[in-house]
Amino acid sequence: MGLIIYLDGEFVPEEQAVVSVFDHGLLYGDGVFEGIRAYHNRVFKLREHIIRLYESARTIGLDIPITMPEMEEVVLETCRRNGLRDGYIRLVVTRGRGDLGLDPRKCPNPTIFCIAASIQLYPEELYEKGLELVTVATRRNLPEACNPRVKSLNYLNNIYAKMEANLVGAPEAVMLNQEGYVAEATGDNIFIVKNGVLITPPPYAGILEGITRNTVMEIARQKGIPVEEKLFTRHDIYTADECFLTGTAAEVIPAVKLDGRVIGDGRPGKMTWELIHAYRELTRVDGPVIFREDERSMNCAG
Ligand code: PMP
């Protein structure tokens, strides 16, 4: 059975969920989106994702025609219509239908759609062994040109980097900013651990300010782990005690090699494991409930 998709105020079977070839999301990558997870009948960090969506829209000058609470309800109801308690949700707002010119003023009505699907999880083995990363030549977008803090539909920068990683058979790429400082991976943020301190690049390094990144920093601070947002180079990764990536799909995933250099002892580190477990715990309790009946029966069951 196909999925039920939210599209511009309606829930329709996926065959009927079609957008115009004149949609500027398609013609120009003009739009914004979020990738969100549902775990254990809850939508994890839903509020944070909705806020980031509206902030991205604000920066590209796109007025989303529904309110943030309405958008939260769109996500929850899309999950309900698909019987989804665990999965991956894609929420997209495009500039809408216009003409063949790129002027956004010709697009009066943004297109909004939401897909709630199952997720293809990374094999557990990757978490146990850790990833081998490579640095790629493609630099992360210049913030003054196309700010990585906006989660826009324009992902060519990241796709170029992914293609370079594919060429050498690496599962993820490390992207540097224009100054040569470490920015992020193609679809994940990056952290290192050095002498007990957790370090990640600041948003001004030219990165997407990941929800998972922020959650991991919050968990670490609660555990009393010192956290620093500061610029660092590849040398700092080569010489780090531990390294890991964070993202909605990957969660927290260890990295054990960069450009052929072994990081730490070449195995996922102790702090990384602690954060993986704490993050997984949090996914059980955070976010609004999708199906209320489950909540009641869960409560009755004690
Ligand atoms: N950086 C980039 C470029 C991304 O696309 C993503 C999301 N896939 C992330 C970082 C991680 O962000 P989040 O934790 O919010 O998923």
Automatic annotation (TrEMBL):
Keyword Transferase: yes
Enzyme class of the recorded protein, top EC level: transferase
Coiled-coil annotated spans: none
Keywords carried by this UniProt record: Amino-acid biosynthesis, Aminotransferase, Branched-chain amino acid biosynthesis, Pyridoxal phosphate, Transferase
InterPro entries given in the database record: Aminotrans_IV (IPR001544), Aminotrans_IV_CS (IPR018300), Aminotransferase-like (IPR036038), B_amino_transI (IPR005785), BCAT-like_C (IPR043132), BCAT-like_N (IPR043131), Class-IV_PLP-Dep_Aminotrnsfr (IPR050571)
Biological process annotations from GO: isoleucine biosynthetic process; L-leucine biosynthetic process; L-valine biosynthetic process
An example molecular function term from Gene Ontology annotations: L-valine-2-oxoglutarate transaminase activity
Domain of life: Bacteria
Cofactor(s) demanded: pyridoxal 5'-phosphate
Catalytic reaction annotation: L-leucine + 2-oxoglutarate = 4-methyl-2-oxopentanoate + L-glutamate; L-valine + 2-oxoglutarate = 3-methyl-2-oxobutanoate + L-glutamate; L-isoleucine + 2-oxoglutarate = (S)-3-methyl-2-oxopentanoate + L-glutamate
GO cellular component: cytosol
Pathway this chain belongs to: Amino-acid biosynthesis; L-leucine biosynthesis; L-leucine from 3-methyl-2-oxobutanoate: step 4/4; Amino-acid biosynthesis; L-isoleucine biosynthesis; L-isoleucine from 2-oxobutanoate: step 4/4; Amino-acid biosynthesis; L-valine biosynthesis; L-valine from pyruvate: step 4/4
EC number of this enzyme: 2.6.1.42
Family indicated by similarity: Belongs to the class-IV pyridoxal-phosphate-dependent aminotransferase family.
Chain's role: Acts on leucine, isoleucine and valine.
Name this polypeptide is given: Branched-chain-amino-acid aminotransferase
Species whose genome carries this gene: Desulfofundulus thermosubterraneus DSM 16057
Encoding gene per record: ilvE
